[in-house]
């Protein structure tokens, strides 16, 4: 296209303006904004949730032609109110990495060869069918993600559980949110937080339980800081195992020894009762007391199974149980002073203060993850600080749809979209909606994530389809599971957008569309479902994960169950899925409502969102005449649990004398397969590192930037030391972010897990350090 003088001047002016805006204004990021001919076109803006964490920030993506060229926060989204974090502002650049997978590949003669995607899908269907016939229905599995869209997860569950008859469906949210789920179920009988982000503007006290919110959920943390600045009487407590950016911004930082949060939570409850800070009216009307099994193991052996046996106890028996958790006794266990424990209890116990507790992986990636969730709920239930504005125990989510696609759709082995496979009524409803015989749906769960990869290693599973996740980096005790995937007579299919260590072990690689190259929905931490349309086309032969599954399902003969056309399949899937939740406790908004808004909270009843559940003032599912109704339990009462402190599965000793803790940094997300392809984020933190306490470093003769070998009983990794960086662990601990595939820290971690939730503990294992 040739430009005349007028067009050239106009284009040059626009180019200068956009370049200036991108460098000056923090609220908007421009990229890829020139046409191939060098001219500037009209930018149109489309709404979408952010692709990264589970906060669910709303974005507006600027599109020019068929390319995304700019990003800004969506001011109409109540989550972020126009603000984004550094990842959100640069998110669209993840669409345009030079090594995007745009063609299907199949392993032939030991080498990956490009083939038409139809041929690759034919092979996937043929190998899936062949494996089932040869080894049985439970020899095939699909492993997905909290990055799956809701339609992705829904069709995966429908195909495998409804049509193929296997419950071998899991998602990587088992690695990050399962303990939140089981904590909620065991206390309330139903899943997902009762509060919402609006709690932030009402709360007087925030306690972040093992959660570096400043880096993990920065937009929500900024709302906390803004509330403190605006109101002046807000207190933020950082309760953590290392000093972080959250610690620096908090009013007080309290450091505890790993796994001892259990003891501290019990000590807080002890103090609440001792000082008569109990909300007796609430407790007597709305709670009951229970205990379960103790000394329940750590899940390190194959075929591990555990079933809790809850027993009712009296308040007096619960009070007696807490006598082992006086602040003075717990100080010796936890390293937290009795004075600080009493201070925490006084904040929760003050009837004039509204308290919100936030947590994420620090509590959930825990060998007693269910228990510590229960114990924090105990604090809120004893004081009645729950289900009202500003009073919220709130589990935050790590992935954009870990709630929507995993917890709501039910992409875990025991789950169905509305219930569990063990329940006959739930199976019958699923069979009716899916149009399959009820006998197709197996009443027995099969393998949770860790056991699924153990089954792949053993050979019980021979075919695995992996979508939207990178388990060859994220699995704990990684060497075992990578070696298992590479064994003979295993067939691995991977759907992804970039090459990863997981595509390295694949027999078939399917090119996937990414985020706004497809239509879909996510579900965030506060029960908010967020729709996004197909904003730009995907490159090459990329295909959405949803449509890949549909194509394979049809090749397997399930055309009747997957009848949709490419023009409207998302709407049709959504309206079918809504039938599972057609009740006041979980009703989902219609497709047209989702499409029009920047997210809608469920339960969505009579055209209204429910902001606080279990409170009759806000929740239409509560029984008439009640003030609170915890309707997940038959009697409408929440359970207060007597759960003891127990040590971690593996603790430091003379040979391995350091704790290893792993996590994230603000610039990168999960395994870095997206954020490391965003130049500005990669330049900011180009490689991983190990944080070492400066006193430990001095004792070992290690200086900043020097290479260090981290060794456990399972493996080792060499990386550079970070001393007095953004985070500082206490003496005897090191911390490693896991975003860098060049440093596979999960070769070092332990695959122990919470016996109830089956979620692994990435925060605690024993290592030693050597100068490399």
From TrEMBL:
Residues 43-99 form the 4Fe-4S Mo/W bis-MGD-type domain. Its cofactor is Mo-bis(molybdopterin guanine dinucleotide); [4Fe-4S] cluster. It is found in: Secreted. CDD domains: MopB_CT_Fdh-Nap-like, MopB_Nitrate-R-NapA-like. Binds 1 molybdenum-bis(molybdopterin guanine dinucleotide) (Mo-bis-MGD) cofactor per subunit. Mo-bis(molybdopterin guanine dinucleotide) binds at residues 87, 147, 172, 176, 361, 365, 470, 495-496, 545, 662-671, 746, 763. Substrate binds at residue 738. One of its GO terms (molecular function) is 4 iron, 4 sulfur cluster binding. One of its GO terms (biological process) is cellular respiration. It holds the Pfam family Molybdopterin. InterPro entries: Asp_de-COase-like_dom_sf (IPR009010), MoPterin_dinucl-bd_dom (IPR006657), Mopterin_OxRdtase (IPR006656), Mopterin_OxRdtase_4Fe-4S_dom (IPR006963), MopterinOxRdtase_cofactor_BS (IPR027467), Periplasm_NO3_reductase_lsu (IPR010051), Prok_molybdopt-oxidoreductase (IPR050123), TAT_signal (IPR006311). It catalyses: 2 Fe(II)-[cytochrome] + nitrate + 2 H(+) = 2 Fe(III)-[cytochrome] + nitrite + H2O. Component of the nitrate reductase NapAB complex composed of NapA and NapB. Belongs to the prokaryotic molybdopterin-containing oxidoreductase family. NasA/NapA/NarB subfamily. This is Nitrate reductase. It comes from Desulfolithobacter dissulfuricans.
């Amino acid at each position: 296209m040739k430009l005349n003088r007028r067009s050239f001047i106009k284009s040059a002016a626009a180019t200068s303006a956009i370049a200036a805006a991108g460098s000056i204004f923090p609220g908007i990021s421009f990229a890829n904004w020139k046409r191939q001919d060098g001219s500037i076109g009209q930018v149109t803006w489309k709404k979408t949730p952010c692709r990264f964490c589970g906060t669910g920030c709303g974005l507006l993506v600027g599109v020019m032609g068929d390319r995304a060229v700019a990003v800004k926060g969506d001011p109409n989204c109540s989550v972020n109110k126009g603000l984004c974090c550094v990842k959100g502002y640069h998110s669209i650049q993840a669409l345009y990495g030079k090594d995007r997978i745009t063609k299907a590949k199949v392993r032939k003669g030991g080498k990956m060869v490009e083939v038409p995607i139809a041929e690759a899908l034919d092979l996937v269907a043929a190998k899936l069918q062949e494996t089932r016939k040869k080894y049985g229905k439970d020899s095939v599995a699909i492993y997905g993600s909290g990055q799956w869209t809701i339609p992705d997860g829904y069709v995966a569950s429908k195909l495998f559980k409804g049509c193929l008859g296997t419950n071998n469906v899991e998602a990587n949210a088992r690695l990050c949110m399962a303990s939140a789920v089981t904590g909620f179920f065991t206390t309330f009988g139903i899943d997902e937080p009762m509060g919402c982000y609006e709690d932030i503007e009402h709360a007087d006290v925030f306690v972040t339980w093992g959660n570096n919110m400043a880096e993990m959920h920065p937009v929500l943390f900024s709302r906390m800081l803004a509330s403190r600045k605006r109101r002046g009487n807000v207190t933020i407590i950082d309760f953590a195992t290392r000093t972080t950016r959250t610690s620096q911004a908090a009013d007080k930082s309290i450091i505890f020894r790993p796994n001892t949060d259990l003891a501290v939570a019990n000590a807080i409850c002890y103090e609440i009762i001792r000082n008569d800070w109990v909300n007796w009216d609430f407790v007597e009307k709305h709670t009951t007391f229970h205990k379960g099994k103790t000394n329940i193991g750590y899940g390190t052996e194959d075929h591990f199974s555990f079933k809790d046996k809850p027993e009712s106890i009296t308040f007096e028996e619960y009070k007696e149980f807490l006598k082992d958790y006086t602040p003075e006794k717990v100080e010796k266990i936890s390293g937290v002073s009795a004075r600080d424990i009493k201070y925490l209890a006084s904040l929760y116990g003050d009837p004039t203060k509204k308290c919100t507790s936030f947590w994420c992986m620090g509590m959930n990636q825990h060998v007693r993850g269910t228990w510590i969730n229960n114990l924090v709920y105990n604090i809120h239930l004893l004081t009645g600080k729950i289900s009202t504005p500003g009073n919220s125990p709130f589990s935050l989510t790590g992935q954009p749809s870990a709630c929507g696609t995993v917890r709501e759709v039910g992409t875990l082995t025991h789950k169905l979209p509305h219930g569990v496979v063990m329940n006959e009524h739930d199976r019958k409803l699923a069979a009716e909606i899916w149009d399959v015989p009820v006998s197709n749906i197996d009443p027995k769960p099969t393998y949770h994530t860790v056991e699924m990869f153990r089954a792949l290693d053993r050979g019980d599973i021979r075919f695995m389809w992996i979508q939207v996740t990178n388990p060859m980096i994220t699995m704990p005790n990684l060497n075992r599971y990578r070696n298992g995937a590479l064994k003979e007579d295993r067939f691995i299919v991977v759907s992804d957008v970039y090459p990863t260590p997981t595509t390295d072990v694949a027999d078939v690689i399917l090119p996937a569309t990414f985020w706004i190259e497809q239509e879909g929905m996510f579900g965030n931490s506060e029960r908010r479902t967020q729709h996004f349309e197909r904003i730009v086309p995907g490159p090459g032969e990329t295909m959405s994960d949803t449509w890949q599954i549909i194509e394979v399902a049809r090749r397997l003969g399930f055309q009747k169950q997957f009848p949709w056309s490419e023009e409207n399949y998302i709407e049709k899937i959504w309206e079918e899925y809504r039938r599972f939740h057609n009740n006041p406790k979980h009703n989902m908004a219609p497709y047209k409502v989702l499409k029009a808004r920047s997210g809608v909270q469920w339960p969505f009843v009579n055209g209204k969102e429910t902001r606080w559940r279990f409170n009759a003032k806000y929740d239409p599912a509560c029984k008439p005449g009640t003030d609170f109704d915890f309707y997940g339990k038959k009697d409408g009462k929440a359970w207060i649990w007597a759960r003891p402190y127990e040590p971690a599965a593996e603790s430091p000793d003379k040979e391995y004398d350091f704790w290893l803790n792993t996590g994230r940094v603000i610039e990168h997300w999960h395994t870095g397969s997206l954020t490391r392809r965003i130049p500005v984020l990669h330049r900011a933190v180009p490689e991983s590192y190990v944080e070492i306490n400066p006193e430990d470093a001095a004792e070992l003769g290690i200086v900043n930037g020097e290479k260090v070998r981290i060794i456990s009983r399972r493996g080792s990794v060499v990386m550079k030391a970070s001393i007095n960086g953004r985070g500082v662990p206490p003496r005897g601990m090191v911390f490693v972010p896991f975003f860098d595939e060049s440093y596979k820290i999960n070769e070092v971690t332990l695959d122990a897990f919470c016996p109830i939730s089956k979620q692994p503990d990435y925060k605690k294992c024993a290592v030693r350090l050597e100068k490399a």
